[in-house]
Amino acid sequence: GAVVSQHPSRVICKSGTSVKIECRSLDFQATTMFWYRQFPKQSLMLMATSNEGSKATYEQGVEKDKFLINHASLTLSTLTVTSAHPEDSSFYICSARETGGGAVDTQYFGPGTRLTVL
Amino acid sequence: AQSVAQPEDQVNVAEGNPLTVKCTYSVSGNPYLFWYVQYPNRGLQFLLKYITGDNLVKGSYGFEAEFNKSQTSFHLKKPSALVSDSALYFCAVGGPTGGFKTIFGAGTRLFVKA
Question: For residue A23, which of A2, A74, A94, B55 is within the disulfide window of CB 3.0 to 4.6 Å?
Answer without folding.
Answer: A94
